[in-house]
Each structure stands twice: as C-alpha cells, then as structure tokens.
C-alpha cells in the first residue's frame, strides 16, 4: 500500500482519472518508472489543461497534476552527477511546478530544489556576474541623486502638497493608536536596518549565487494597465541583466510575486516587522517588488492593509483618499476595476477634468524605511532608483 508521498500521488491520479485524464495517468505512471518522454508528455498535457479555461476555473487536481509532471521531468536531470545544463533544466521544471502547480506536492518540489541547489554548491560553482554588471550594480545603489533631478522624473505637482508623516521606529502600541486605527499613512525609519538583505543584496554576486538559475515570473512594459504589458518566465540572472536595458518597451520587473516563498534563501534575509500584527489577523502574503529605474505602479486601490519595506533604492508614493475614487475614473474592465484610468505621467485635463485639482499626500521612501498604508487609500508608486 502506498504511504506518504506515494499515497498523495495515488490519490491524485485517481482524481485525474475521474476527470477523464486517462492519457495523463498512463504517461505519469510510465514517468514514475523513469520514462523521460512520458514525463514530458504528461507535463504538456497538464499545461494544456491549465490554459484551457480562466485561472479560477481550472480544477485544483490539474494544478497538482502539473506539479507531479514537473517532479517527474526534473528527477533524471537533477540526479547527482549531471552537468550544469541538466541541473538548470531540473531547477526550471521544479520552479514551474511551484509557480503554476497546486499545493499538494509543494513540499516535494521544495525538497527536490534543495537537493539540486546543494549539489550545485557542492560543485563549488561561483556566480557568473560580469565585472561590468558588478560595477553598474554598485553605482546604482550608491547613487543618491539630486532632488532637483528627481523632481524632473516625478508627476506634476509632486512633493508640493501634504507630505506623508515620517517617524523613527516607534512601538507597536503607538503605531496602532496613532496610525492604524486612524487609517493614516506613515513612513517609519530605522526599522529594517538589521535585515541581512540590507547588506547582502548590495552584492550582485550573492544574488546570482543564491537565485541566478531560478525561474521567476516577471512583468514587461510600462505598467500592467498598458496594452503592451505582458508576463514572462525568465531566470533571475536574465532579470538582473535586463536591469540595465535602456529599452523602455522592455522594462522588466518583479511585482507582487511571493518570491520569498519560492526562494527560501532570500526569505532568510528579511524578517516580518511586528507592525504586521496590528490588525490581529493572519498575515495575508509577503510579496516582492524588484525593479529598475522607471518602474511604475498606476493609481490603484488595494484590498488589504500594506506595509512596504524599501531595502535598496528609493520609491515615490502618492495617495488619494478613497472618497475621491469616482473622480479618479476607475477602469471599466472588471479585472482592472481597482485601477484608475488617469496616467499621472501624461495627465490629460480635458479627458479627466475631475482629477485635475484633487488633494493628495505623497512622499519618497528611502532605503531602510517602512511605509504603512491603510486600505482606504488610492495610491501609485514610482521607482526612480533601482531595486526592491
């Protein structure tokens, strides 16, 4: 009788059979016995099922089936003794299982990744960051930028109205009393200076070594509301290379992705601030935004309270009260209904006259600062210096 992981897999294959996936089950059984072609065929069948309907309509069984197929594809390539190409292929398959698969076999995917990564480091592989990239990285995170130059990059009227209040690191009780309950934004400094990320992420070779071969989802384009916007799956090394691209149409960034759940080593570089316990509920998610100069998030409304930590670089924020949502012309498409049609970089008063003289608050988040934003506010963010 199957036990543990085998029992999970047997139950999954039974569920897939009930949904008519006989061909997948046949291929998966051959793949489990080491048939590489069958593993690839099973993965392809599961992939087609994932894209046969909108994401929320795809059954959980097929997501788990995709994860199983990824495990089968990776197994022979990730076995000890394989070359770098095999290990990279195994990591890509396993990462795809984490990104696109269900949760049933997540622990198995993570264990398999840990084995492949340990095998790679056992071979004493070094990061492959080019000398030019190392220098550009150092220059980027060291550049403070003159305020006059910064203002040229920001939307009209930036930093001319009410500023978001700044405080040094304060006790949780004061944060709840003075800001959380009042639903007021605040910038807090000196709260994350103990994070290992504050020093480790200044070394591009470290990032290459820890995450270079890992596959991650990225967004490409000015912002997600543009018609040219798209998503891609690339390695972290490829993403770092694109950081220096001068092609605005190819602007690439990581946005709202659970990167720290996927790459555990990076999760060890941060800690959850105690302010996240202010609401008394569970932490909804820990996501990463990692982008180059010019990365922009359009005006939008979030459903959850936010605590944003700026590890490296700077970010400009602008906030409007929820009471003026209608005057900010929400998108009519359901999927973008939390996003404004107003483009602050190219504001057209004739098209959006109600938004012309609305009051707002704004500020610049510096390195080593936290920004707390209540869910009742509309806001946008703009990176004028690199990095998360």
UniProtKB/TrEMBL annotation:
Keywords: Dioxygenase, Iron, Metal-binding, Nucleus, Oxidoreductase. Its cofactor is Fe(2+). It is found in: Nucleus. GO terms for molecular function: dioxygenase activity; metal ion binding. Transmembrane segments: none annotated. InterPro entries: ARM_KDM8_N, Cupin_8, JmjC_dom. GO terms for cellular component: nucleus. Residues 243-388 form the JmjC domain. Pfam families: ARM_KDM8_N (PF24472), Cupin_8 (PF13621). Its main location: nucleus. Belongs to the JARID1 histone demethylase family. This is JmjC domain-containing protein.
